[in-house]
From TrEMBL:
GO terms for molecular function: protein-lysine N-methyltransferase activity. This is ATP synthase subunit C lysine N-methyltransferase. The chain crosses the membrane at residues 39-58. It is found in: Mitochondrion membrane. The lineage of its organism: Eukaryota, Metazoa, Chordata, Craniata, Vertebrata.
């Protein structure tokens, strides 16, 4: 029997073995194709996830730059912070930092006893500011909001700190003059306001800080009730 089998195998035509081999090839090709397809799907998913993460990371930084008036993030220097605190000496009441960045001014003011608030358009910087305030133990005296400064009223603040750019200062000057009370003090860093004359100035170069007392730039009168005694005729 074995001899017959071997002879039949030897008597096969030359293409018979190749046909036998080829019968197994489609299954092997199918497995290889499925494996390559799986790797392709994984690579596509990985690339897509990377792009989504990159978009989420970059968008908050790019979007403000696309606005008509760009307020870029430039960290305050140690000298600027000290100059701001100098302008806040003997002051009281709530404080707001317009364009608070990573929260340095707000946190420094809170350490001096102020109830301080920061408004910042970049959510990553706001979240980082909240972390820094918690880390420094002043989170109870600080608040940070993700908001466009043009959509916020600053009417209830007595101390206002501004890190602006020249393009926005004229419009912001008008907004603050309309909203703030007479006892407000506005502290500008890096760039002064175009029309107001500062009451106090300190620092040099990029660390220069200008302080403006609003009572000098509009008519602020204290209303009092005057009683005129009646005279007998």
């Amino acid at each position: 029997f074995n001899k017959a089998v071997s002879e039949s195998a030897l008597c096969r035509p030359p293409g018979a073995m190749s046909e036998a081999v080829s019968e197994e090839s489609p299954a092997q090709d199918g497995e290889g194709g499925a494996r390559r397809s799986s790797w392709g799907l994984l690579a596509t998913a990985g690339l897509g996830g990377t792009l989504v993460a990159l978009y989420a990371l970059v968008t908050p930084f790019v979007t403000p730059a696309l606005r008509k008036v760009c307020l870029p993030f430039v960290p305050a220097t140690a000298a600027q912070i000290q100059n701001v605190l100098k302008m806040l000496e003997n002051r009281s009441g709530p404080l707001v930092d317009i364009g608070s960045g990573d929260g340095r001014i707000v946190i420094a003011a809170a350490k001096k006893g102020f109830k301080a608030v920061g408004y910042e358009l970049n959510p990553w910087l706001v979240w980082y500011s909240r972390y820094r305030a918690w880390r420094d133990g002043v989170h109870q005296n600080t608040k940070f909001y993700i908001s466009d400064l043009w959509k916020v009223s600053f009417s209830h603040y007595r101390n206002i700190v501004v890190f602006g750019v020249p393009q926005m200062m004229p419009q912001l000057e008008k907004k603050l003059e309309e909203e703030l009370e007479c006892n407000a003090r506005i502290i500008a860093c890096r760039f002064p306001f175009p029309c107001w004359i500062p009451d106090h100035t300190t620092g040099e170069g990029i660390d220069t800080v200008w302080a403006y007392d609003l009572k000098h730039y509009r008519r602020c009168e204290t209303k009092s009730l005057e009683i005129t005694p009646e005279t007998e005729s």
